[in-house]
Design brief:
This protein has 4 helices and no strands. The protein is mostly helical and 113 residues long. It is elongated and about 60 Å long. The termini are far apart.
């Protein structure tokens, strides 16, 4: 069963805008992962892209399913909360592990480039 024909035009446009914006932001973070040189630079770009991109996609999902079901659909807020809290915590843990490894190996920490 496909509910897309029942979606009003305004909701379809808003949903498309937010999903495409979220995909573009996430793609920008992925490109930053590839383009940046050191680990400490690379770890930052995907974190921002993931958090903001997921937020835009969740807003688009909320608009779409709220319009289809004629009631507010807010379970996406729970997903957003989990992503917002877990992504920066993962970043912190990865950077701390890398700093510890670099200090044990005697490298110049933090790296100056």
């Amino acid at each position: 069963m496909n509910g897309a024909p029942d979606l009003p035009a305004w909701a379809a446009w808003l949903t498309a805008f937010f999903v495409l914006a979220g995909a573009a932001i996430t793609l920008t973070g992925a490109i930053g992962l590839v383009r940046l040189r050191s680990f400490y630079e690379r770890v930052h770009a995907p974190t921002l892209g993931t958090t903001l991109g997921t937020g835009c996609i969740l807003i688009g999902s909320m608009i779409c399913f709220s319009a289809l079901q004629s009631r507010p659909v807010v379970h996406e807020i729970l997903i957003g909360i989990f992503v917002t809290f877990t992504t920066p915590v993962t970043l912190i843990l990865l950077v701390r592990a890398a700093l510890y490894r670099d200090r044990v190996e005697g490298k110049d920490v933090p790296p100056h480039e």
